[in-house]
Batch of 3 targets.
Target 1
Amino acid sequence: GKVLVSGANGFLAVWVVRAFLENGYSVRGAVRSADKGVHLSKIFNEYREKFEVVEVPDITKGRRCEGAFDEAVKGVDAIAHTASPYHFKADDPAELLEPAIKGTVGMLESARKCGTAVKRIVITSSTAAVVHDEPTPQTFTEADWDDQAVENVQRDGRNASNVHKYRASKTLAERAAWDFMKTHGSSLGWDLTVLNPPLILGPILHEVPSPSLLNTSALQMYNTYATPDFVSGGGCWVDVRDIALAHVLAVKKEAAGGERIIISREAFWWQDWLDATPEAAKSNPKYQKGKPGSQKDVIPPVSYDASKSVRILGIKYRDMEETARDVVRDYEERGW
Ligand code: NDP
């Protein structure tokens, strides 16, 4: 089979491309400009018969079809749509909402009008589209929706918090995808699977000239290890290699069609990562120790029920020791 992966040069997407190639698929990676494909062609050189790069300069604009991907979808059997802005720097919420929503709907439009062979589309949503702020600790499931962020952004616009702007972009994009399926479902040759990961962490394959240019989640991890200020917060996490493989399984498994699936290992405090790699600070004094053990018994405010991912996709999650070890090794190899 052949898969189109959008945003192919991103932190997650490079691992998604690799997972598809390792599982025997051919991959077409969509990037915004040709220069962003150079690193990809280099790292996937051994797969050069099976890997190609296409340029899609603006995912919010269509050409002959209403979507931007009308050329890119031709001849693929499946699509993994990962491209979407993930940062907390937008002043105008439209900076996040537009590419998130129009990119998603545009991809579906292109597949509907131009792609005849597509059998499964996987969209990378997020637990940002699931979680909502609650006064007491909660375990969220696929039945939860983050309408709170959407309401806040609709009410407050530019003055909404940057976290809510991002969360609203993911919620609205995912809702738009399910609405599209409701409208067109019976006439489509494919079905949709949506994956909802929390913070994605792990070693890096994409092109990163210096740590300060890391993507949002990997930068938080790096700052935890490499900046002296104590990092008190936390969240929930999944290893980038596990969520990448989840995209392959979501294409492969019939039963994943029509499903929204949380892909989460567990809740964490940043301190837990430092505690998981006690030898790191010994081998390089630049890596922090934080306050060892200080967060061990603090109850996390947010958890996710990931049982559906095990049931439907059969995911086996990496644990923190393995991910932490591989991340520190990655820093060391890069001289970070
Ligand atoms: P990256 O920033 O590393 O990658 C984002 C990708 O999307 C890049 O290829 C980027 O292209 C592309 N993109 C962003 N904005 C636009 C735009 N306006 N037009 C076209 N392409 C765009 O992020 P991640 O790999 O972390 O995120 C990938 C996906 O996973 C996103 O959908 C994100 O919401 C989701 N996700 C990520 C989590 C995480 O912790 N990392 C957690 C949960 C979900 P370019 O390089 O050209 O900017």
Target 2
Amino acid sequence: MADRDGFIWMDGEMVPWREAKTHVLTHTLHYGLGCFEGVRAYSTEKGAAIFRMKEHTDRLCRSAHILNMKMPFSKDEINAAQCAAVRDNNLDEAYLRPMVFLGSEGMGLRADNLKVHVMVAAWSWPSYMSPEAKEMGIKVRTSSYTRHHVNITMCKAKANGNYINSMLALNEAIASGCEEALLLDNEGYVAEGSGENIFILRDGVLHTPELTSCLEGITRQTILDFAKELNIPVKERRITRDEVYIADEAFFTGTAAEVLPIRELDGRVIGAGKRGPLTEKLQGMYFDAVKGKSAEHSHWLTPVNG
Ligand code: PMP
């Protein structure tokens, strides 16, 4: 990742990709207190456009606030940085990684003189799921790792350190022949995937876990917006893992995963064992929206060239 041409926005200026470095004593590297976003820009008729950038920037600022990190840049500046990162790297579509982290001015948990840094990188990173997975769905296993409890880390913050839990769960799932993990909360109810929210469909009603220990996903909100448009009833509530086993359809949502059908959980086939009709409909609406093909959702896109 580090050895390539291009530019990364760091603390207010564009820096050549290979020179966008930080010291090994960077505080966030040691203790994980930092926050970040995963954002996508898609190729549209108006050129590359960032999907729901404002919502991502808002969440980044909320995460920083929760972690008590004072943001040194305004939302407008961070939005401009994201557009510039796509534009200056000549990207037609991109994954964007804004991150807020603490500097190397001090060490130890008590360090109180740390500078807050902000960076935004953008690169071409096509969907990590194959076209087949998007159609046939993926195999998932319930994780042996519990999702964060709301009073252990802050679940509303997309915090760097929170992802140790995600990586342990994902690595375990992959090692056992699955493609993704489903994490339960500390009471045993369904929380989310390692980097995705989850929805199930049962008897025409969509269900998704309430926002307790899962992240306030922007794709999750997009699906809730679509459901409203389609007059599909939605219940945000506690879900048990066996409700997923007996669902008619199930799918994950996330900026990276997009809308991803789940065909199997813990060896139990879900519904018809492939993408269900509502998942297909919502997935289609999602791809139309991100690619600027649906006029009613065009306000979610910010063309990087203005
Ligand atoms: N949960 C977790 C733990 C995540 O990392 C992500 C990805 N940001 C999501 C859910 C989905 O969020 P979004 O739709 O905003 O990408």
Target 3
Amino acid sequence: MFVTFEGPDGSGKTTQIRLLAEWLRERGREVVLTREPGGTEIGDQIRAVLHDPYNTAMDARAEILLYSASRAQHVAQLIRPALAAGKIVISDRYADSTLAYQGYGRGLDLEMLRTITRFATRGLTPGLTLYLDITPEEGLQRRRLGGDEWNRLDAEALEFHQRVRAGYLELVEQEPERWAVVNAARPVEEVQVEIRAMVQARLGKETRVTKPVIARNKVTKQSPPLLMC
Ligand code: TMP
């Protein structure tokens, strides 16, 4: 099963993904955790270029092609082989980030982005996408306070992040059967309980939802679907 997490910056995806993976592994599932951009050695090199705050001259088309290049490598080298081996793949961001940030955020043509994405992924679409919703104001504030990596996109104006969030909400409306929306402006534990319930519903009844144990002080920080996993 291919599960992706999406959301504005600072929505707490990374922490939630880690907790979800721990829970699934405790229940005997083989889980591969990955992220975009990145997920492979080549993808991580592309990530460094994309997120370098000094690369302010980057053209919007170069940006989309770099995200897509990272994704193509990610799908071919890591995601498809893991799914073929029966593992659960959880990716921190995937193609919906391109639609939200480059499409709704930067204003690039959505159909063109979908075409590029289909080419890069050979049509691989997640079976479940969890959208962690939070206002850009709160999300960016959390990132500042959490001392997270401050990337080129964080530095965009607030209006950009507002367009990104509105874009995500539109994507959810277009494909409600694939998406599950979680209010991320709540305590970590509460959010995790809801996420587990949503994942459990997709995986079947064999896993029981339990309250997550959170380590103290641990602040951690796509298109007609052709193939659903
Ligand atoms: P993150 O690893 O902290 O989530 O940062 C990834 C950043 O890259 C985030 O600001 C969203 C952005 N991004 C895009 O703009 N387009 C994409 O296709 C992806 C995968 C990420």
